[in-house]
UniProtKB/TrEMBL annotation:
The keyword Transcription applies. Residues 1-27 are annotated as: Disordered. Residues 1-20 have a biased composition (Low complexity). The keyword Ribosomal protein does not apply. Signal peptide: none annotated. InterPro entries: Histone-fold, TFIID_TAF13. This is Transcription initiation factor TFIID subunit 13. Keywords: Nucleus, Transcription, Transcription regulation. The gene is LOC115744603. It comes from Rhodamnia argentea. It comes from the Eukaryota.
């Protein structure tokens, strides 16, 4: 095998889907990614190949990130939100601020739903 044919073999093997990407269902995030891509300036209807490539990249990134967080969490015996925040803190301060903002909004929504459920139960009890 000469140098040029071994280079072609490497290039062909690198274009093959990784083991983890071939085990998962593809296209799960297709619509969401199309909307996100459009929001970042892409065409309203991007090529399916482009969406599939972006999906592969995103899934690989999230999977690697989750595995790193799991490694950190395994030292304490469980995985928590703080493990993810620790990793984000090391990588990107604006991302950390956005994560904290989203977690805060999630807590506010949870409290609002809880208050709404309690009010609804009181209303139902008063009507009986």
């Amino acid at each position: 095998m000469n140098a040029s044919s071994s280079g072609k073999a490497r290039a062909a093997s690198s274009s093959q889907p990784s083991e983890s990407s071939s085990k998962r269902k593809r296209g799960i995030f297709q619509k969401e990614l199309q909307h996100m891509m459009y929001g970042f300036g892409d065409d309203p209807n991007p090529l399916p190949e482009t969406v599939a490539l972006v999906e592969d990249i995103v899934v690989e990134y999230v999977t690697d990130f989750a595995h790193k967080a799991q490694d950190i969490g395994s030292k304490r015996g469980k995985l928590s939100v703080e493990d993810f925040l620790y990793l984000v803190r090391k990588q990107d301060a604006p991302k950390l601020n956005r994560c904290k903002e989203l977690l805060s909004m999630q807590e506010e929504l949870k409290q609002a739903r809880k208050a709404f459920d309690v009010d609804e139960e009181k209303l139902a009890a008063s009507l009986d």
